[in-house]
Amino acid sequence: MGDLEKILRIVGELRRRVVRIALVLGPIFGFLLTFQLRFADVNLAGHTVPVVYPFPNLFLNVTAQVFVAMTALLPRGVLLFNLGIADAVMVQVEIGALLTLILGMPWIIHEAGAFLVPALRKNERELLRQIGIPATVLFVVGTLIGLLFITPLTLTFLFEYVGALGVAEQLSIQSFVTFTILYPLAFGIVFELPVFVYALTRVGAVPASAWRKHWRGAIIGSLIFGMLVTPDNSGVTMLLVATPMIALYLAGAYFAGRWERTKPGPEPPVALPG
């Protein structure tokens, strides 16, 4: 088989996997934008059981319900307003895309793994199986911390400046949703750092000593990343991102060094008789 045939075969397989992902994610996205979740109490054998069921609703759909829930993150007294004529639609599309990505992530991982595994060595496939659950847990934990704690804290801190100037505490729905989505996602990505560090050492790409040697560069990189993903120039919100990022980098370096010290060495050659 020639190089061109191999490339076409890989592209064809990639296209097949992308189509399979789209066939699952498309209906999820459509459902989120066209159905509402309604709640009702059903009496079963003398017991009241809460039931959730979908009901067609193009406007007050699942994404709109999630948006209403997200407004609880706003500081008291802050008002949201619709600035652009299509902002309300774009907000629902953004929320729907995020929810679709989250709900469809197991299928995305399955298809991505099915595409990549044939090209991986045995130790790399074993590593993927080992870090899959920790990576998922860390991402979920980081995203939840960013959403439930860091985002409200940041919004409260920033609107203290607004109140000090004596101007109206208002925020466009587009800015609010973009910030509320991207900021927690940034924390989810940050929490993947120890897995990334550990994995690079496990596959032999970066020795554990290099992580310890370049810790100063890691601190500078964390501060730069925090500066890029935060919406203000106060430095406080930058530290809210950079501080856990530095701690997670050091944790990854520690576990990488621990694995390197305990990894099995090459088997000694067998002595031939004679």
Number of helices: 9
Order of helices and strands: HEEHEHHEHHHHH
Q: Radius of gyration, Cα only, in angstroms?
A: 24 Å
How much strand content do the residues show?
5-15%
Largest sheet: 2 strands, antiparallel
Q: Tell me the overall shape.
A: globular
How does this structure look, described?
The protein is mostly helical and 274 residues long. The protein has a domain at 3-191. It is 70% helix and 9% strand. The protein is built from nine helices and four strands, in the order αββαβααβααααα. Strands 1-2 form a two-stranded antiparallel ribbon. Strands 3-4 form a two-stranded parallel ribbon. A hairpin with a 2-residue loop joins strand 1 and strand 2. Helix 1 packs antiparallel against helix 3 (87-116), helix 3 packs parallel to helix 5 and helix 4 crosses helix 5. The longest helix is centred in the middle third of the chain and has 44 residues, at 122-165.
